[in-house]
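Anyone up for a design puzzle?
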């Protein structure tokens, strides 16, 4: 069973965000980077499926040269080989552009299963996996909490709202977007880090970028403000108004 896992490099959560002069993205020249957490869960699920059913795990990442950092980390955790779709414009690409680049690499691999994290920690659109499935003509399912492989069929458990879950049967090949918390993450060992240096890392150029369908107009850091509101009137009127404010404005109950 050949499983591809799409991973993304994102700004570390410990890094203090600085906005660039154009106010369109963060000033990332001096940023710290890490593996996107939902993608880490997708990688772990792929490794567990490989241990159970055999096969190969291939990680695919699209971005500038610096993304080799997270690719090497994925190889150290147990992936067999990797593909880097290289292009500086992919650092801030929208979901359509990123999905097209990843799909181009996955298409050459003829994978049985493609896993992605549910969403990225930076943009959080949760669309890349869905668009990839459409581009590749594969069945897909989202917000996955459990994966069972039975022959050429998948049974997957989807997380719904309000504590509900849904079981779905679907054919292979397929694309799944994995929910964080589906499993317990493993981390790279010294042996794994040393082994990663000898594993194949193939680099391919990014395909011609399609017309941008989404663009960021402006981003900003939320401003912290404080305000005091005086509720006047009789005790009964003040109490009624306080209840209304807490219910309708503050929405605390």
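Challenge accepted. My sequence:
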């Amino acid at each position: 069973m050949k499983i591809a896992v799409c991973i993304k490099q994102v700004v570390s959560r410990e890094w203090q965000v600085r906005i660039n002069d154009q106010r369109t993205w963060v000033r990332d020249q001096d940023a710290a980077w890490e593996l996107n957490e939902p993608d880490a869960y997708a990688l772990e699920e792929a490794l567990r499926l490989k241990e159970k059913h055999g096969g190969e795990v291939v990680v695919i990442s699209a971005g500038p040269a610096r993304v080799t950092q997270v690719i090497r980390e994925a190889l150290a955790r147990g992936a067999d080989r990797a593909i880097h779709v290289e292009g500086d414009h992919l650092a801030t690409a929208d979901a359509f552009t990123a999905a097209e680049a990843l799909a181009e690499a996955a298409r050459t691999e003829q994978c049985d299963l493609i896993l992605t994290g549910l969403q990225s920690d930076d943009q959080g659109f949760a669309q890349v996996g869905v668009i990839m499935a459409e581009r590749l003509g594969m069945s897909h399912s989202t917000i996955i909490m459990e994966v069972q492989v039975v022959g050429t069929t998948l049974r997957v458990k989807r997380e719904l709202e309000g504590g509900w879950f849904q079981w779905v049967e679907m054919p292979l090949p397929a694309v799944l977007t994995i929910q964080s918390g589906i499993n317990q993450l493993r981390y790279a060992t010294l042996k794994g880090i040393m082994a990663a240096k000898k594993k194949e890392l193939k680099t391919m150029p990014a395909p011609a970028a399609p017309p941008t369908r989404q663009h960021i107009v402006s981003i900003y850091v939320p401003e912290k403000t404080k305000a005091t509101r005086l509720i006047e009137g009789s005790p009964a009127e003040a109490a009624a108004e306080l209840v209304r404010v807490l219910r309708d404005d503050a929405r605390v109950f």
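A detail worth pointing out: The helical segments are 37-53, 68-77, 95-107, 128-136, 190-196, 235-249.
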